Amino acid sequence: MSLHQFLLEPITCHAWNRDRTQIAISPNNHEVHIYQKSGNQWVKSHELKEHNGHITGIDWAPKSDRIVTCGADRNAYVWSLKDGVWKPTLVILRINRAATFVKWSPLENKFAVGSGARLISVCYFESDNDWWVSKHIKKPIRSTVLSLDWHPNNVLLAAGSCDFKCRVFSAYIKEVEEKPGPTPWGSKMPFGAVLAEFGGAGGGGWVHSVSFSSSGNRLAWVSHDSTVTVVDGTKGSTPSQLKTEFLPLLSVLFISENSVVAAGHDCCPMLFRCDDGGSLTFVSKLDLPKASITRNISAMERFRNMDKRATTEDRNTALETLHQNSITQVSIYEGDQRDCRKFCTTGIDGAMTIWDFKVTDTHRHTETHTETHTETHTETHTETHTETHTHTRRHTRRHTHTHGDTHTHTETHSWSGSLISCHHIGIFLFFLK
Amino acid sequence: MAKNTLSSRFRKLDIDEFDENKFVDDHDEAVDNQGPDATEIDNLIRIGDTMTAFQLALRNPPLNTKNPAIKERALAIVLRVLTSFKSSDIEPAVKSLDRSGVDLLMKYIYRGFEKPSDNSSAILLQWHEKAFAVGGLGSIVRVLTARKTV
């Protein structure tokens, strides 16, 4: 588990390149910054400045090495690397409201853009005219599209929107692909057809994020009414909904066929399990809050913290989780959707954290923390999680703190205990769309 | 300039009603629950069986109906049951509910907060504390995001 604090600005969205040596992030403005990994540090290598409004979505195609970005200026650009410089190509989306989300299809021959214009723009490259053409999916979407995910067959597209529904559309473009075979979601798939629609029905909130599993048979989504829902296309169309006791989740991802990771306003990734019958259960929070470690903070660090936060007293208002503000996006770092070993989260606190994930049958957790404080605020924790449904924990931690100025501690903690969950009774924002 | 600032009648117009793209929630008109049965619950409260009164009161919530009278009636009955509880009995009553029951109880509690009377706030706060311990922040979020209200 390692956290890197980029800047103090929120990270709106991020995307990794194929070998995870570069990350493209948007620091809540009109630009995309590409950082290159060098050793343990992240060094900014490119700045992509073309948009006139805030960037709302970035996706990096792993094989063809193209980046697509979309923004509040109602535009999308496809960027290609030419002679070490990223060159943009404008894509005319024909939308009259901001774009909200963008995703390359699995074969990278098309991408889909969700927007506030209550429609999805599916764009493909027309080689005769040498430009990108967009086709719209309008009906029956009745509010802003917040999130999209492609099915592995490159044709089906799941969309979560502010009209409280999650839908599966067909985005079949006959110019670029063959007719797809039948799937559990349906067999007739003309462009724009709705193959499945879930949600609404009384309760329900805005659907913040949707995710297909690696086989494409399962679809998970998280909604603003603090629920996680999974539906298995092969087992009929009754979704299994779990009402959580947490704040709403903002991003969801399948990390194996049976496990779902979601994170949101509680600043902590949570693991859910979906069994073969299709029912969903909560497993655990993946960010174990550290028990209060009394370490002597040096005077210089105390003043540095006060300066950074512009406070006049030395009060610790830090959250116990690694992320200090809501997590807005979860992505796979190592592995794939069938078997993910590491995943990455970015959030409004401007931090990017990489989490280890392993599921075996033993009950053991071992953690070794090595914290080195440097000027660029990089913390490296190495943690191996081994989890199943019942938790008995024996923590053994070894801390080695090295402060640049004064003292060196070596502490050995060992305790067994149950998780102390912290209730954040605070003000949470409803983003008005 | 003087002419078009004279009449302010346009300010009484609800412009959103004329929007052709206005979002209309699809209501399933199907089951129209009438709310709990007042007489039976009154009897139970009188004989002191608050637990059964509680279970009955939370059955058949008038979620689908648009008639405010039915909702008011149901709310009054539920509040009567909630206020007749002793503090020590609250926790087992909350424990006897399932997830959706806790969400429904939370909805009634917040409706009860809207119009505080002399002795209702204190007991409602105790109910809120116990329901929050079970339902967490999620149950409160579901009260705020619910479109079918009690």
UniProtKB/TrEMBL annotation, chain A:
Subcellular location: Cytoplasm, Cytoskeleton; Nucleus
WD repeat spans: 48-84
Any single GO CC term annotated in Swiss-Prot or TrEMBL for this entry: Arp2/3 protein complex
Biased composition (Basic residues): 391-401
Keywords: Actin-binding, Cytoplasm, Cytoskeleton, Nucleus, Repeat, WD repeat
Presence of keyword Nucleus: yes
InterPro entries associated with the record: ARPC1, WD40/YVTN_repeat-like_dom_sf, WD40_repeat_dom_sf, WD40_rpt
Region (Disordered): 366-413
The UniProt record lists the keyword Repeat: yes
Basic and acidic residues composition bias: residue spans: 366-390, 402-412
GO biological process entries: Arp2/3 complex-mediated actin nucleation
Pfam families: WD40 (PF00400)
UniProt-recorded Gene Ontology molecular function terms: actin filament binding
Homology family: Belongs to the WD repeat ARPC1 family.
Name the record gives this protein: Actin-related protein 2/3 complex subunit
Gene: LOC118940219
From TrEMBL, chain B:
GO CC aspect terms: Arp2/3 protein complex
Gene Ontology MF terms in the entry: actin binding
Signal peptide: none
Keywords: Actin-binding, Cytoplasm, Cytoskeleton
Annotated InterPro entries: ARPC5, ARPC5_sf
Location in the cell: Cytoplasm, Cytoskeleton
Main function: Functions as component of the Arp2/3 complex which is involved in regulation of actin polymerization and together with an activating nucleation-promoting factor (NPF) mediates the formation of branched actin networks. Arp2/3 complex plays a critical role in the control of cell morphogenesis via the modulation of cell polarity development.
Family membership noted in the UniProt record: Belongs to the ARPC5 family.
Protein name listed in UniProt: Actin-related protein 2/3 complex subunit 5
Organism listed in the record: Oncorhynchus mykiss (Rainbow trout)
